[in-house]
Amino acid sequence: MEATSVAIDEGATLSEAARRRGLHGLLVYTFLMVTGFAMLMPLVAVHFVNDLGMAAAAVGLALAVRQLTQQGLALVGGVLSDRYGARRMICLGVLLRAAGFASLAFADALPMLLCAMLLSALGGAMFEAPYQASIAALTDENTRPRYYAISNWISGVATTLGPLLGVALLHYDFRVVCLAAAACFAVNFLVALRLPQVRMPDRPPPLRHGLDLVRGNRAFIVLVGLMMLYWFVAVQINISFPLLAQRLTGTVDSVGVMFALSAGLTVALQYGLVRWLERRWSSAQVLVAGVVVMSLAAGAIGLVRDFAGLLICVGAFSIGALMTRPTQQTLIAGLADPRALGTFLGVSSLSLAVGGGIGNIAGGWMVDLAATKQWPWLPWAVFCVVGLASAFGLHQATRVRRERAPVIAES
């Protein structure tokens, strides 16, 4: 077991039963968090572009602001988690996210959309690193891969239900979708209150020392940098994919179908496929293979001309994505220094902040450009090339570290 024993505020070591209760609580939290995010976020582009007439690039900018703010400030949430405990920061974060999603219900112009996105992003920045640090602290190198596989399977179930609920509620009103998503995070506040207040046994290091630990971990920094390219491609499921689905069919229901297929494959294959692959390959090899599959699937979308073809590509993309989720989480968590878990996992969020932020802006802009120039292949060719570059870099960076021991999500 790694040197990550868990303690409550009073200093007593958590029993195995308390540890298990904490992990079970985090699984419930994961389900509500992903359901709330998935029922709303994929519909933001559809609602503000098609219903309110905003430019896809402008909505992409708003999505990028949320991504950059949340992941860019996740380091702050991680540092505060190291000092004040993960539970407190999670509680604060979910309340801010609930307020942000509720305010999105009343946004009818770009400034209001940006404000709502900033508020929800601030909440995410407060809870994301503490949430991941709690998982890392309550698991060890033997239990972590299995826990991440189960957690990602539950995320798949939530991702299946979320868009279906969102599309169903959208037939009433977009405000209903926003308020229902906000309610998921309000309930999560009650769940978080019952989580153990975990912290590392040693006195948390000062911020500068924590960042020095990060700077001295070259393998961690390289992995975070390469994952920026990965997230550039991965976030297209929330911007480019929904826009193309609706343009091909002319109905928002197709967005729900697309996400139902993606999440259904995750539910069916996530746990079994990843566990089967990890018995044969290292986590790094599974990650590289998943990124390759995602990249080729994204590139193939440039060749399709109907919704059925898009669904085939979405299916392949989803299989690649379910291969990457638990493996990149395991790799990052294992490389993080136990003395500053929150700081390390906050820094790791920069990969999603930068890569996902640029991906959202570029995705919306290239969809508009492709439609204007009649170059339907353009966005998908770019996504393919960037993804393959990420896979090659990950292969080169991890080929010397072929180890099966764990070595680290919109919500």
UniProtKB/TrEMBL annotation:
Principal location: membrane
Coiled coil: none
One Gene Ontology term, aspect cellular component: plasma membrane
Entry annotated with the keyword Chaperone: no
Membrane topology: Multi-pass membrane protein
Matching InterPro entries: MFS, MFS_dom, MFS_trans_sf, MFS_Transporters
Pfam families according to UniProt: MFS_1 (PF07690)
Annotated localization: Cell membrane
Regions crossing the membrane: 26-46, 116-138, 150-168, 174-195, 216-235, 255-274, 281-301, 307-324, 344-365, 377-394
Top-rank taxon: Bacteria
Keywords recorded for this protein, A-Z: Cell membrane, Membrane, Transmembrane, Transmembrane helix, Transport
Gene3D superfamilies cross-referenced by the UniProt entry: MFS general substrate transporter like domains (1.20.1250.20)
Every Major facilitator superfamily (MFS) profile domain range: 22-399
Family matches, as PROSITE patterns: MFS (PS50850)
Any one GO molecular function term: transmembrane transporter activity
Protein name: MFS superfamily export protein YceL
Source organism (scientific name): Lysobacter capsici AZ78
Taxonomic placement: Bacteria, Pseudomonadati, Pseudomonadota, Gammaproteobacteria, Lysobacterales
